[in-house]
Amino acid sequence: MTTAEEYRLLGFDDADREAAEAFTPDAAVVKDLADQIRAAIGKLGSEPEFRMPEDARNSVQAYLDTVPDIRAYHSSRGIPDDISWASLADLGQQLKVSRRTHGEYSLETHWWLTNFWVGNLYSLGRLQYMLFQVTEDQPVPGTETGEWIIGVHIPETGPLTPELVDDSFQQAREFFPRHFPEYPVKTANLWSWLIDPYLLDNLPQDSNMVKFGRRFTPYGTPNDSQDSAIFFTFRTHGTDHLDELPQDTRLQRLVVGRIKDGGTWQSGYGYLKL
């Protein structure tokens, strides 16, 4: 049974903790996901491909049930408690985002949390990093197929100030050699609409977002990501109600204005050397 302190460390607010405690899970469905998680812990290199419950609230219960398992793995790697809990606290963060999007206890991104629960993904200061291997069909400049690198992910936890980003990258440079020495990493990559050239060229060049995006050298072919721009800016989906979206910030106006002008937001690829 999850304790009140564990809920706090996992980032739950009161509303989601109360909802999780009140929910009656499907025991068989929860066990199926929990068994898959336990079998995959420590098998690093790619994102898990699990059978996910139709009702994501069952996924939440499976994550709660397997906290001791992933915590034991973190301990076996010598990962400090603060980093372990900060990483697993993305569960509570994703619940908050889902509640803000849908207005109720839910977990839209329940598949995403599997990366934390098998030991692939870690929160180090402002950013998160996923340990994975380069594949032949998704090459990264300056790396070889099979080489280990870290993928950068940007949680919604505050501003991307250069100081916080510098500190996070420094933590990553120290964390992975110390706790995963058999997986040497020299490169980080990013796939995000935040490095769409249109965004980088049309926001103020001294903005935190642009300074962050300019750290990465572009490569590969961008993907159309209209919904990503809408979702991550406004926490809603679709383009049917553009006139109802807030236009309080330059970013909000830029996102809506490009779509109204017939443009399409894209997620680009970028890399940097650690």
From TrEMBL:
Domain N-acyltransferase N-terminal: 1-117
InterPro entries: GNAT_C (IPR041644), NAT_N (IPR041273)
Domain GNAT-like C-terminal: 121-272
Pfam families linked to this entry: GNAT_C, NAT_N
Protein name per its UniProtKB record: GNAT-like C-terminal domain-containing protein
